[in-house]
Amino acid sequence: MQFDLTEEHLMIQRAARDFAQNELKPGIIERDEHQKFPAEQIKKLGELGFMGMMVSPEYGGSGMDAISYSIVMEELSKIDASTSVVVSVNNSLVCYGLEKFGNQAQKQKYLVPLAQGDVIGAFCLSEPEAGSDATSQRTTAIDMGDHYLLNGTKNWITGGSTASTFIVIAQTDVAKKHRGINAFIVEKGWEGFTVGPKENKMGVRGSDTHSLMFNDVKVPKENRIGEDGFGFKFAMAALEGGRIGIASQALGIASGAYELSVQYAKERQAFGKALADLQAIQFKLADMATEIEAARLLCYRAAWLKDNHLPYAQAASMAKLFASETAMRTTIEAVQIHGGYGYVKEYHVERLMRDAKITQIYEGTSEIQRIVISRELLK
Ligand code: CAA
């Protein structure tokens, strides 16, 4: 068993850490407050090869492993989870699914620009009445011979207004239930496709989240991914990998809050000594550090299983469940350690606390992760 990161992993970690400090930290409070999308930062992340990290160089990607992806997600999320969620959706939910299940033509046309970071991708599964219950798709894609006719509404779509390529999950044959669901590649600007207003969110406010409306959108047959009826399995497989990304995002939010707390505890004086000399604070920091280390090991284990082509659905859900709960607990404690300063924006921990909450909700709530974990245990 090997617990050390390789030289290559350490190099990628340094690059992501430098990027987060130099490119993400400046302006982070304003971007959060004004819900400003980090367009320039995403462009630069594309140039660094972080938008298609695990995609083969044959399709414009960086050919890195899932451990590297986890490392990068942690480092970016220490500072800016609004940027890292865009990175995660593009890498896991869009690029991974296209590379694994798309055909040659789809990969050349859509995957290459996504992996190179020239365009952004979005993954459209959730609906007003189908969040956790993902099989209850109301969006329909009726087979019209040479094309499908797409109708319906998708909710809470990350990249709703900035993405150019959308993977849309829709029901083609209601009688077949989840086996009648398909996944389609839809382009921005197609007739009948409209983007709703931006959601005013509690956290990850720099990322753009929108509803999308499809009204008789013509989707060419060649834009269906996989065999007829493969869409639900496609979505579940993409989400498995996505959960490693969001687990690592939660890990980063927790470790960002922890690092700020250690620094503050050493600097801040109270009762004639540094906060760090008070046992009440030391115990909090010890609990934070222990949980973060456990979350990191779960993230790396899930990524390692994926890299070694072993089943990883349960491991990814365990990582996401534990890391997101850790992010919530850690950020609440970080605000507590900072006292009044923790409650104002300049000290960053209140933003991290707001950002932490979404990691318990998107790509499957904590309750969904428990369903996935327990099914594997009991089957
Ligand atoms: N890979 C491949 N196939 C899978 C799979 C996987 N990981 N998991 C399930 N399937 C298949 C099953 O084998 C089954 O197929 P058959 O019937 O043909 O054998 C089929 O899918 C249905 O599976 P289940 O019976 O397990 O389906 P279910 O409805 O009972 O439960 C669930 C599934 C786990 C609850 C699922 O609905 C789920 O994960 N829900 C949460 C959805 C979610 O995560 N949404 C996030 C939206 S995206 C997002 O958040 C992005 C963002 O903004 C950041």
TrEMBL record:
The keyword Ion transport does not apply. Keywords: FAD, Flavoprotein, Oxidoreductase. Residues 231-377 form the Acyl-CoA dehydrogenase/oxidase C-terminal domain. Residues 6-118 form the Acyl-CoA dehydrogenase/oxidase N-terminal domain. It is an enzyme of class 1 (oxidoreductase). GO terms for molecular function: acyl-CoA dehydrogenase activity; flavin adenine dinucleotide binding. Its cofactor is FAD. Residues 122-217 form the Acyl-CoA oxidase/dehydrogenase middle domain. InterPro entries: Acyl-CoA_DH_CS (IPR006089), Acyl-CoA_Oxase/DH_mid-dom (IPR006091), Acyl-CoA_Oxase/DH_mid-dom_sf (IPR046373), AcylCo_DH-like_C (IPR036250), AcylCo_DH/oxidase_C (IPR009075), AcylCoA_DH/ox_N (IPR013786), AcylCoA_DH/ox_N_sf (IPR037069), AcylCoA_DH/oxidase_NM_dom_sf (IPR009100). It comes from the Bacteria. CDD domains: SCAD_SBCAD. Belongs to the acyl-CoA dehydrogenase family. This is Cyclohex-1-ene-1-carbonyl-CoA dehydrogenase. It comes from Mucilaginibacter pedocola. The lineage of its organism: Bacteria, Pseudomonadati, Bacteroidota, Sphingobacteriia, Sphingobacteriales.
